[in-house]
Structures are given as C-alpha cells and as structure tokens.
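Let's practice the habit of predicting before peeking. Look at the sequence and jot down your guess about where helices and strands might fall. Then scroll down.
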Amino acid sequence: MSTPFPLELVSNFLSIVLLIALFYKYLQYKKNIDVIKGLDKLKDEKKIRLEDYQYIRSNEKEYKDKLEKAVGNIKIAQPVFIIIAGVLILSFEFQEAMIHLNVVVVAFIFMQVDRIHKRNLYSFLRELRKETKNQVEQE
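Done guessing? Here is the structure:
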C-alpha cells in the first residue's frame, strides 16, 4: 500500500518557485534602475548623446507596452484567482485550503510587483526622455 503524495508539498514548492522568481525580478529591476541612474547622471552632466536619447526612447516605448500587457494580465487573472480561491475553499477543509491559497496569494503579489516595477521604469524613462530632449536638440 503506497502513501498518497501530499498535495501541500506541491503548493509549498510552487510558492517557493514564485518567491525565487520574485527575487530574480527584483534583481532585474535593480539593474535597470542602475542603468537609468547612470543616464540621469549623464543628463545632469549634460553629456547625453543621441544614442543615449534613442536608447531612452526605445526603452520607454518597450516599457509602456510591457506595462499595458501587465495591467491586462492582472485584469484577466484577478477573476481567475477568485475562482481558484473559491474552488479551493469548497474542495478542501479550511486549514488545508489556506495552505493551497498561499500559491494564489504569492502569484497575485508577483503580478502586482511586476506591474509596479514596469510602471516605475516607464515613468523614470518618460521623465528622463522629456528632460534630455532639449539637450539632444541643442547639439
């Protein structure tokens, strides 16, 4: 007779994977912020070149698209998360359902943090583009 595989281990493993992905996203965000800080420093020193300005513009457009996609994904995912939570609560005892809901909560947090990072990067790039536009035109 074999013992059934505990479903809690799957839920915990998925939560850990999502937390690792969240940490990885944070490191990417920090790296992108460092690049933007470097460009801001060049702007303050009035050393922005045309290539830098084009880099800012292209990344601003890219992050605008990424932000719109992230917002759309969240709008779709929220009702799905609510349905999953309801099914878990109806399918399992309350304590066991709470263990499985952990994955849903971590996934929701992951999506929100991703959206915030993309919004911040887009805002920083937009402001930097506006501030550097005059410097590039004067050259």
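How did you do? The CA atoms of residues 116 and 135 lie 29 Å apart.
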